[in-house]
Amino acid sequence: MRIRLDRTICDGFGLCAKHAPEYFSLDDWGYASLEGSGDVTEGDRDAVMRALLDCPVHAITEWGEHRDTEPHQRSVGADDAAEHLKTEDNEAEWGFTR
Could you tell me which residues belong to the region Disordered (predicted)? Predict the structure, then answer.
């Protein structure tokens, strides 16, 4: 797991440093800084994920590859969301009048 911290978004709540002090430190004004390269060891993953999830402004992001073992396949007969979009072509169907 690899994380990044966007200091321009940070509002200084300090929850990240509370949950994962090995990865986040706070400056004199309470704004977070990322300690190290952002690579998270497996043993610290839970604490860092708690910090990521508790950040009220979403300044912490997880970077890396998330690959499913099986590719997503569309089920037969599944509704296509695009079929239900409201457009000028089907405005009479959804009650829009000009």
Answer: 65-98
Nearest 5°: the CA angle 73, 63, 8 is 130
Tens of pLDDT, residues 5-41: 999 999 999 999 999 999 999 999 999 999 999 999 9
What is the C-alpha separation between 86 and 51, in angstroms, rounded?
40
pTM: 0.62
Instruction: Kindly state the tokens that stand for 87.
Output: 């457009």
Contact 7, 57 (CB under 8 A): no
E strand or H helix that includes residue 34: strand 32-34
